[in-house]
Amino acid sequence: MPATEEPPARPLRLVIAAHAVSTYGSFLNMVALGLFTLEITGSAVSTGIFMAVRLCAGVLMGLVAGTLVSRYARARLMIGGDLLSAGALVLLVAMPSAAQPTMLHALAVLLGGSQTLWVVALRSGLPALVGPDDLARANANLVAARSVAMLLGFGSAGILVTLFGYHAAFLLDATSFALSALLLAAVRAWRVVGRPAGPPAKGSRRGAGLRRLLPSVAPVILAMIAVRSVDAFGSASHNVGLPVYANLAWPDAPAAFAALFTTPWAVGSLVAGRWYARRAAGTSRPGSPRAFGVATCAMSLLFVLAFAGPPIWLVAVLALAAGMADGYAEISYTTRLQTVEPSRLPQLMGLASTAQNAGFGIGMIVSAFALDRLTPLPVVALAHGLALAAAGAFLISHARTPAHRPHRTQEVEVAP
């Protein structure tokens, strides 16, 4: 980085702040828009369609996000996504009530697509922003910031809607996206990262990126993406099953039970992020595949135990531990993926985002149908059992590979 540019710490702080603010907006509208859709349509099916459209938009965006990030400055893409989201929310508030149901579907597409593009741009650009020595620490700080934002987003959504109404919640949501865009606009050092300095790699050409990407990426990284997608399938089961479980466990106060489940989970993720950040300070070691596999196994097992009907204090403890395992797994996973050759990274992050969104979407559909016939425990146990099996198979396969692994800079061989 030229001496005339900003020191790395300031751009990173701005990006972490933008990530936190944008994530807050995403979790706020996830709750508020779902409730709003149910209120104006009076249909649970319409609410489900809204969520499905949002997820599908994210899956489809993941297929092209890598190409977009390779061709255009990532900061501008992220700012554009934030501003479009903010503008669409303001438009939803301003338009007549009769037109709002139609606008909701357009908003679902915009929010789902822009959020995926935002994440791909962020994760693929982080190595160039901070360098290898601070990469794991930066990922840990991003997870910690996201955990705080999730707590605030989920916690404030119900209060804002109850006290001030949906329009106030949407306008605050729009403000959060606008603030994220302003923070990103100040990251001057990152504007040069969006387009490679030299000619584009052959793998980034239109229509050839994915075909050239898969043979060029180390098998362990592709296996980690596969495990993460199955883990997303399992995570969908406890997200869909939690409202049912809460109504069965505490029929007089299901919202309080759900809060006592989700809040410790977010706190656990925050703790993992802060601990990992301190542990990884000044090291260039990539995320450990073995640690990723162990953490994924632990998280799945802990979620199943939490749905087995233990006392509420033990539910909170299990959720806290599951959040810690999930946070650790995510940091290890993201840091490992970011060790690939830079010209391949946007495509790889797009593929990873598509796989994870697809796993979560399929898991939501399967779990919703299964919960019509089964109680939450067998549904969560089966879904997380698949994630546990996938992570276990990954650990066994990884343990059988030769001990003399190549250095991380050689893990990706560019296809001829």
Automatic annotation (TrEMBL):
Keyword annotations for this protein?
A: Cell membrane, Membrane, Transmembrane, Transmembrane helix
Q: Which residues cross the membrane?
A: 12-36, 48-70, 77-97, 103-122, 143-168, 174-193, 213-235, 255-277, 377-396
Q: Which domain of life is it from?
A: Bacteria
- CDD domains associated with the record: MFS_MefA_like (cd06173)
Pfam families in the record: MFS_1
What PANTHER family does this protein's entry cite?
Answer: INTEGRAL MEMBRANE EFFLUX PROTEIN-RELATED, STAPHYLOFERRIN A TRANSPORTER
Query: Subcellular localization, per the record?
Result: Cell membrane
The protein here is known as MFS transporter
| Bilayer topology annotation | Multi-pass membrane protein
